[in-house]
Amino acid sequence: MGKANPVTIAGIHFNKQGDAVSFFNDQKKDLLPEGMIEEGELFSALKDVYERYCNNSPGYELNGRLITGFSVDYERRNVGGTWVTHPCYKAHFSNDEIRPFSIAKAVKSVADNPH
Q: Does residue 70 register a pLDDT over 90?
């Protein structure tokens, strides 16, 4: 069995990547702020993981854009024959661009490149 790969995001330590992904994916719709997420622990974690993901992923560079916030939409997905509601995060930038991104890919990138 492989060794768990710990990851730290915005000062929050997770013992394994799956715990970090769950932190984002287990956010409850009714507990999230209305509209854009622009402050707080979740904003800091999303910003940290997204910026580090961009730094490690050619083609995703920020190129001077600033992150102004994040939004989350929920979509239903069929996973193993069961319908589940899944959060879909999007980064909002200073140039009014909006980009969806994969939490799982972003966390993996951060875990594989911790600095």
A: yes
Helix (DSSP H) and strand (DSSP E) numbers for the chain: 3, 5
Question: What distances in angstroms separate CA 9 from CA 6, 53, 84, one per listed residue?
Answer: 10, 11, 26
Angle at the Cα of 79 from the Cα atoms of 74 and 85, rounded to 5 degrees: 20
Q: How many domains does the chain have?
A: 1
CATH of the domain at 102: 3.10.450.40
Average pLDDT, the chain: 87
Residue 56: inside a domain: yes
CB 54 within 8 A of CB 62: yes
pTM of the model: 0.86
